[in-house]
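Input record (Table S2, row 188):
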Amino acid sequence: MSVQSPLDLFVHELGDIYDAEQRIAQMLPKLAQECEDSQVKAALEHHLQETKQQIQNLEECFGALGVPPGRQACTTIQGLKQEHDTFLQGETPSADLLQLFDLSGAAKTEAYEIVSYQGLIQQADALEQQTCVQLLQANLMQEQAMLARVQQLSHQFNQKSRAATDTGVTLPPDMQADRTADQAQPQV
Ligand SMILES: [Fe+2]
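Output record (fe (ii) ion complex):
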C-alpha cells in the first residue's frame, strides 16, 4: 500500500508498532529466563501479559479504522534484538552483567515504544479517531510504567555492583553465586 494521506501514514506507523509489540512478546520470555533476579523476572513476565493486551488494543485500533491488521517490519526492535544476541554470544558476560545489559535493552525498547505511541496519539487525534486515541493511551501508560520499573531495577543493581567493586576485592566465583542468591530475595 502506498502512503498518500495522513490516514495512510497513521496505518503505516500503526503497522510498525504492531510488528514491534509482536517481536517484543517473543523476546520477553527469553529475557525473563536469562535474568536471575526474581524481581526482574516478575517485571518482564508482567510486561509480557501487558504486551499481549497491547497487541489486542492495536488490533482494535485497526478495526476502528476499518482496515485489517498489518505488520511493517520494525527494524529498530530487530536491531535491539541483534545487539542482545551479539552481546550474549560474543562477550560471554557473567549472569549479573547480562542482567544489567538486559535491563538497559529493556529501557531502550520502552523508550522507543513511548515515543512511538506519543506520535501515534497525535496522529489519531488529528484524524479525530478517538477510539484509537483511547486504545493507544492505554498502551502508552503501560510502557511509561514499565520504563520507570526497569530504570528503578537498573539503579538498584548498578548500586549493588558498585558496592561490590568498592570493597576493592574481586569476588571469587563461589561468593558471586552467594551474591546472586541475595539478589533473588525480594527487596523492600
Ligand atoms: Fe513495552
